[in-house]
Amino acid sequence: MNVKKNQAKVGTLLSFALCLVLSASCLFGCSGGSQSPDSDSHNDKKNTASVEKQSGSDQSKSSISSSPLKESDTEDKQETSSQPDDAISWKDAGDYVGESVTIYGPVKGTKVAKSSKGQPTFIDIGASYPSTDRVTCVIWSENRGNFPSSPEVYYKGKNIRVTGTLYVYNGGLNIEVSSPSQIETY
Fold first, then answer.
1. What is the distance between the alpha carbons of residues 156 and 5, in angstroms, rounded to a whole number?
2. Cβ proximity of 121 and 139 under 8 Å
3. Nearest-CA neighbor of 168 among 26, 18, 36?
4. What is the mean pLDDT of each run of 10 residues along the chain (186 residues)?
5. By 3-state DSSP, what share of the chain in percent is helix, strand and coil, each rounded to 5?
């Protein structure tokens, strides 16, 4: 019982910290504009994204009802491969915000945002950007050298399992990836 209370307190503190960060960012140059699907602001605010990582049972429960993922009417035949018992379909990922999990699904889009802060590489599972019905693997430029080849090329069109902590950014689910050991093809 005390663990749940502590998780709720941590979640509240993270929400407060996020508000402070967002307020500060607006004071120092908030763009306030809308983003186009072709812009490099796919998920490009590294510092804000790391603060938005949610934890605690209350936030995880609330994300179930407002999950950015929707049930797909058609099953993706590529996802029928044998999965480990602890892997979760990208469609169910919204139930695990703030938790370290292994998510699996088809890569539907990739992009390197070279002109964005941190030059992130995005690997979209389940649906491609700008849809929020996806899980995005975020690889920051400082970690690209950890991969033997360009991740946006290597993983494109493949089925992958990715392990990491799920967080919400701009209405979409994300997992930060720093090592190729976090991603496995199947």
1. 41
2. yes
3. 18
4. 47 46 41 41 45 37 40 45 78 97 97 98 97 97 97 97 97 97 96
5. 35, 25, 40
pTM: 0.61
Residue 105 · residue 90 · CB < 8 Å: yes
Task: From 177, 42, 176, 183, select the one nearest 114 (Cα to Cα).
Answer: 42
**Tokens encoding 171:** 């209405």
- Name the residue type at position 48: T
The owner of tokens 């910290």 is 17
DSSP string, 15-79: HHHHHHHHHHHHHTT-------TTSS-SS--HHHHHHT---SHHHHHHHHHT-S----SS--GGG
**How many C-beta neighbours within 10 Å does residue 37 have?**
9
